[in-house]
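I am still getting used to backbone structure tokens and would like to learn alongside you. Label the sequence line and the structure token line clearly, so we can match residues to local backbone shapes. Would you write everything just below, so we can both look at the same thing?
***
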Amino acid sequence: MASFIGRLGKVPGVGLVITLVVFYALIGGDAVNGLVIDEASPLVAAVMAAFFGTIPLVLLAERAALLRRGRRALLWELNAGKLINRMAFSNTFVIPLTLLSLQRLEALGTVIALMWLGPLAVAIWKMVTDRPRRLSSLLWLPLATPGMLLLTRPWEGKADVLGVLFALGAAACYGNFLLTYGGLGKALGDRVNVAIAESMMRSTAALAALSAIVIATLAAFGRTVPGITPGPDWLTWRVVLLTALSGLLTGFVAQVGQNLIFGHGLIKEATFAVLTAVEPTVALTLDWAVLGHMPTSLDLIGAVLVTLAGGGCYYQLEVGGEKLTRLATRLRRRAAAVIAAALRRDRGGKGDLSA
């Protein structure tokens, strides 16, 4: 398996293909959950999807290493407890906040566009702080600003404030998730799958416990809260099957794809973050295909602008960036040779410029 993945990593563009599969799985899971959030409530749908997605992920992790071996000893061996907890925190809240925002804003494309602000912040941080710096890549990001405005259209006054705040909270969780995933990938390599499975177990348990406490407390006082309290007939086969499909897409397929990307370094962390710019376009197609919301011309233009920004950053970081780095290295070496030759001339040397 390891040798196959090693050969796979050498195929040009394979990281980009897997990334696109991850995006369709992540957003597809949200779209499928969007079909049942009015019946089961976003909170309940999130708990069920997390449960169904976590089970196969745990069973797949190094052939169920978390179940066969002592968990404490294994996690001590991984030495990634803080990062696992950070990821668990993000996983606990990202899906409920996304579904709560979707219930209020209704348009999946708008929700995903707002959530892209989290990965955008990660991309900017990485390009500014990493070595070598990719400051020229930041020139692509202003292209995304008008795209975001066209997707959200704040001047129409239709955006629900609470829905926007939910989406921004999900964006913060998404950004922290990417930073943590990248850190785990660098620290653990191809063993990142065990850490991710443990993180999903913790987040699912935390989400289920918090949801049960909140819903039981509301029921005790005889109150119902939209988005939290499920409907009277929410436990149906339709809800179970759709949340199971959502969990398999978001919690299993997407996580396995990201394990390949970050565990084997198929794509740089900053590149993955900026590639999330295509998510609003993915969301528009799934919003139309699954939820039946026809995108407007402004939606399409906005999605194209945001996607172009992400595509430009991808080229700069993964393709053009390498060429520019090699050119800059050659120029630095040539300049050093010229300076050295000038110094030799001053000392009576031959001043050879052939270096």
Q: What stands out?
A: The two ends are 46 Å apart (CA to CA).
